[in-house]
Amino acid sequence: xxxxxxxxxxxxxxxxxxxxxxxxxxxxxxxxxxxxxxxxxxxxxxxxxxxxxxxxxxxxxxxxxxxxxxxxxxxxxxxxxxxxxxxxxxxxxxxxxxxxxxxxxxxxxxxxxxxxxxxxxxxxxxxxxxxxxxxxxxxxxxxxxxxxxxxxxxxxxxxxxxxxxxxxxxxxxxxxxxxxxxxx
Length: 184
Known about the structure:
Blueprint: H1 3-23, H2 29-36, H3 40-46, H4 50-76, H5 82-96, H6 98-105, H7 113-135, H8 145-156, H9 167-179
Helix pairs in contact: 1-2, 1-4, 4-5, 4-6, 4-7, 5-6, 5-8, 6-8, 8-9
C-alpha cells in the first residue's frame, strides 16, 4: 500500500474510532470521511461499508492491546497471575471501547476477517503468559487460550445496560477466583 494510502487508512480508522465512541454506530460514513479529512470515495476504497470499518477498528484495538498489555502483564505480575493482570487490562480497555467489546464478545463465526486474524495473532503471546502462570501454579493447568476468550466474552457481556457500570469488576473477580488451581 502506498504511504499516502496508508496514512489515509490510519487517519480514517482513528477518526472513526473517536466518532463511534462518542456518537455510537449511528454516525454516517460521510461524517467519518469529513472528520478524517478525506473524500467519501477514499473512505469507501479502504472500507466497503461500516461493518468493515468497525472490524478494522476492533482489529486495531486488539493488536494494540496485545502489544501493550501482554508485555505489561509479564512485567507487572510479581507475586500474582499474569493472566489476572492481562484480563484486568483487557476488561478496563473494553469498558471504554465499544468496538473492542464487540470483538471480545463475538463468536469466531460472527467476527470479521481482520478481527479474527488479530485474535489469532494474539494467541501465541497470551498462550505464553498462560503457560508461565501454569508453570508457577498460579492458574489451573486446564486453562487455555480458548478459555481466555470465553472469559473475555463472559465479562464483556455484563458491560451493557441495564447492568451497573461496575458489574464487570465483580464478574471478573469471581472468574479469577475460579482460575486458581485447586488446593491439594
